[in-house]
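Let's do one together. I've listed all components of the complex below, 892 residues spread over two lines.
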Amino acid sequence: MAAGPSVAPTLSAAASTALLTDRYELTMLQAALRSGAAHRRSVFEVFTRRLPDGRRYGVLAGTGRVLDAIANFRFDTAQLDWLADQRVVDEPTLRWLADYRFTGDVTGYPEGEVYFPGSPLLTVEGSFAEAVILETVILSILNFDSAVAAAASRMTAAAGERPCIEMGARRAHESAAVAAARAAYVAGFAATSDLQAGFSHGIPTTGTAAHAFTLLHDTEKDAFTAQIASMGTGTTLLVDTYDLAEAVRTAVEVAGPELGAVRIDSGDLTLLAHRVRRQLDDLGARQTRIIVTSDLDEYAIAALAAAPVDGYGVGTSLVTGSGHPTCAMVYKLVARAASADPDAPLVPVAKRSAGAKSSLGGRKWAARRLDADGVAEAEVVGTGEVPAELADRLLQVPLVRGGEPVGREPLAAVRERHRRAVAGLPLSATQLSRGEPVLPTELVLG
Amino acid sequence: MAAGPSVAPTLSAAASTALLTDRYELTMLQAALRSGAAHRRSVFEVFTRRLPDGRRYGVLAGTGRVLDAIANFRFDTAQLDWLADQRVVDEPTLRWLADYRFTGDVTGYPEGEVYFPGSPLLTVEGSFAEAVILETVILSILNFDSAVAAAASRMTAAAGERPCIEMGARRAHESAAVAAARAAYVAGFAATSDLQAGFSHGIPTTGTAAHAFTLLHDTEKDAFTAQIASMGTGTTLLVDTYDLAEAVRTAVEVAGPELGAVRIDSGDLTLLAHRVRRQLDDLGARQTRIIVTSDLDEYAIAALAAAPVDGYGVGTSLVTGSGHPTCAMVYKLVARAASADPDAPLVPVAKRSAGAKSSLGGRKWAARRLDADGVAEAEVVGTGEVPAELADRLLQVPLVRGGEPVGREPLAAVRERHRRAVAGLPLSATQLSRGEPVLPTELVLG
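Okay, and this is what the predicted structure of the assembly comes out as:
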């Protein structure tokens, strides 16, 4: 395992993000340019009406990727030619898109922070035109990354001091896998198997070996000998290709008691971990660690708490959000000017049809109120003036100012913020059982 | 809506896929290069041990993207420098990677085909070295794309002749969304909202308008007037921002009876569709279509079969595989030569530990046996000789020969194959109720 700084942009960080966009964003733009309403100053908010069923808190992840996506939201000639060829939008709109760059402001919860229903996670302010077309890519990033981070946070809480390793690349779209590794790292995972995540985001990478490596060789002993010869005795040997007890014996025979770790990838992990620990100790390999993998999720990790396990490799369940592979975040217009005049006052707006999808108009602030012991007791979301007693508990920070990103930060800081945010919640936050959000959201209408 | 040919590569099609790879693939490579076993001819197979609980068939999607990923699996200088800097692998391995290009063969089920537990979906043959390192990216693509295609296939079956429109971009990782639109199109979706999917894959794109567009304007009538002025009367107006009945009246007042469609995005869709249909008919807008959206899945689509609905917009449920956001496909070494001699015979290999993860060694063929009426009755998977009566029902086709892709095909052909494949299954295949795979998998050991 090796940590490293971010030495290169993400796979497609330099690529334009402009077409990662629903067609209707551009046709609404065209219609609004024609009606003149496109130039009304507008405020959009990202929030979610609910957490996934039974979850105690949400985890915001992807904000750093959103800043890159906004910076790379530019239309190049090939894209504009295609839009023209397909008659997606008209000539005036194409000219407007050709010059596009976001010049507005973005504020929001800092990445890694926890959130609750109604938390104003990202506020985008600019002309309607410049802000509306960012909707799709912003939601794509935040909905996916936050879904993975929420699952990861439950897993690292269940794992306690033992490291969790992200190894779900093969169970997710190949680029989503990189974002998943990043989100898992934000929420406390120690490392990832995904090399691109190491390359793009500086996340420590790690790995063991597959059954194929053992099967390739004539005997398990040949395979272990080859791996030790190449990787040193500190490596992790996979011991469940044939007979587990024989494999552990062979592993220590070949590597000696300095063997770094063994990996168990099938069977009753609790039972096998105890059996292998005893065998390793009997063989004098008392420092050799036991890594378990095999469809782990937060519940399986919690169930292994009393087993002699030294690390968890988590794949499928992590990259699919442990039952909740996306969040329900939306991007809603909450206020807009009454005219295109830059000084026109903002008017709160909200959908008000009969269904369950109504929302509250007006730009929101948010604060986390603490009890006398300094433990969070409520998420307070409001419009208008911030009550004085909450002034130093405000959650939103500037992310983009006049089109310039001002909120970039190293992942280590994001990770530390997440750790502190969870530590500041009531203890029941990390219970795995289903329940209500651990903090109520209180609305203060100004 | 406009269809178009593929005019440009995918967002990152030209980018290297080489680091979309688990670290252990490269360290196994290093150890095998050192032991000499890396040069043994090897056969890897992609298959799944089970379908998601209750599903009747699987749908293979992503094969075309796999061919691109193999072609773009090259290590550039920045990647090699990073691998060296991080000490992921040693110098001899770095030199081997610098020259890497896949020179082997790939065969498999053609894209769009249905599959069952044990179907050999992709067979990769080459040296262990060149084949093992493709594992992660191949599984990433097939597991994600096939999960979406399987859900899409159930939805288009439930929708019958009515079009399904993919609009889930905001609920998936931004690049995964593009692959999801492609997979949905393979499985019969008519169009996507995702512009990048149109740009990269030539999928028809379409769209309506969001509530924000109505809220931006001073009145709903202003918004509808602006949209009609810009997009023409054939556009789709969103009618549930305020009062539905009033919005429908305003829509026809502004657009006339030529109004293309209205979209309903909340509420009891069956009830509202009937009400809106009656109102449109009373207003003389008998040709105006009704499009429904709002957390649809295959069950909701089926429940709307008797309602006067003309099209379904599907988002979250589609891009998250309708409860099964990934497949359980694995990439297993099933045979390898006994030595590095190119003429050495292949030896079947398989994991044989006690757990549930054992698998069958040896390269497989696969055929779909038909009954007297020409309806599929079994998926037959075997090793060794193909029985004569199945010789014209073989499923696998050549995809790569000597490193050169030979299996590329237009999406229209893939889409048509999928349609025919489902039509060839027993009728119970498209039942939405939970059940066993609609075809049994029969094993023939040669």
